[in-house]
Amino acid sequence: MADSGVGPVETQFFTSDKSFNFSSGGQLPTITLAYETYGKLNEARDNAILVCHALSGHQHAAGTRIDNTQDIGWWDTMIGPARPLDTDKFFVVSTNNLGGCHGSTGPSSINSATNKRFGPDFPKVTIEDWVEAQVLLADHLRIDSFAAVVGGSIGGMQALSWAVRYPLRVRCAVIIAGASRLTTQNIAFNEIARQSIMRDPDFSDGNYYDNRKPPSSGLAVARMLGHVTYLSDDHMQDKFGRERREDTGIFQIESYLRHQGDKFSQSFDANTYLLMTRALDAFDPASAYDGDLVKALSPANAEFLIISFKSDWRFPPARSRELVKALIAARKKANYAELNARGGHDAFLLDDPTYHRIVKGFLQRNA
């Protein structure tokens, strides 16, 4: 794998020139999406790959920010010259989802109708809404079809939705540590996280922006809970064990979680967290077909790569195998890899050689 990445990158912004209709019935007169691109779009405009981020992600997937060279993209090991998403061959597009808090229109944006932040009045969003917003961006970039749509976790759900909703615009779909819908346990974890936010005294029913005091404590606890479920027991044992900090005497894992929670609460919007976890809970393409996932997948035309990790107990391999079986039953081209990486659900973010080799080989052969 090459040492040099994509280098400094500047976030770009696309603003639609028409109103956006949410699947919930809400509407906005216009929306803005923050996005970044890496590599070059070829003359045929057919070498584009769309990267869909996970719950707390954003558009900065690779390289460094122009104004902060220490801020490295969350999937930098995956995107760049000679890397799995090879920017010498592909034009990679990464967006911040609609409803986000890193430049795309979301609850912390100003509502032109009131001159105040949307807050809890922002329309309910779904994964299908994210796809529709990304379609507008693709049209703006004059990309008629993607060589691949790639995502991990909730990003994988977006890739699946793309393949079903726009079969002629997706040649390959790469779904990593994903599922066709959440388990009851997953929904339960998300609800506990939401309750920790909404029960924070500073939440103020979501109208906390004017108070200049966001529900940081609740959001930090939500992040700590989520973070524990994203890691495997083995990974935490390897990294922290039962070691204590010499200065405070608390366990290293306690210190780590507190740091992660505090850091997250300073960079993420609580209303966005509520929106995105609810979108994650609601996703279930089979629900429109009386629970028949095979029928739900029948419109897809893409070749699929499904990857799971044995240490991932939040999105376990059984959920990926369920999706693969449905794809095969629907007579779709499906490739599957079940890997031994110890990183738990977050293994999709790690620099694992086997994992990267599989993604790179699939894209080189098919995309």
Supply database-style keywords.
367 residues; alpha/beta; eight-stranded mixed β-sheet; 17 strands
Summarize the structure.
The chain is α/β, with parallel strands linked by helices and 367 residues long. It has helices at residues 127-140, 154-165, 184-198, 216-230, 233-239, 252-267, 270-282, 293-297, 317-329, 353-366, and strands spanning 8-9, 12-15, 20-21, 27-28, 32-38, 48-52, 64-65, 68-72, 79-80, 85-86, 91-95, 110-111, 116-117, 148-152, 172-176, 303-309, 334-339. The protein contains ten helices and 17 strands.
Helix fraction bin = 25-40%
What is the distance, rounded to the nearest whole angstrom, between the alpha carbons of the first and last residues?
Answer: 19 Å
Q: Overall pLDDT, averaged? A: 96
Shape: globular
The H/E string reads EEEEEEEEEEEEEHEHEHHHHHHEHEH
Describe this structure in words.
It is a single chain. The chain has helices at 127-140, 154-165, 184-198, 216-230, 233-239, 252-267, 270-282, 293-297, 317-329, 353-366, and strands at 8-9, 12-15, 20-21, 27-28, 32-38, 48-52, 64-65, 68-72, 79-80, 85-86, 91-95, 110-111, 116-117, 148-152, 172-176, 303-309, 334-339. The protein has 367 residues and is an alpha/beta fold. Strands 2-5-11-6-14-15-16-17 form an eight-stranded mixed beta sheet, sandwiched between helices. The chain starts with 7 loop residues before the first strand and ends with a helix. The model has no long low-confidence stretch (mean pLDDT 96).
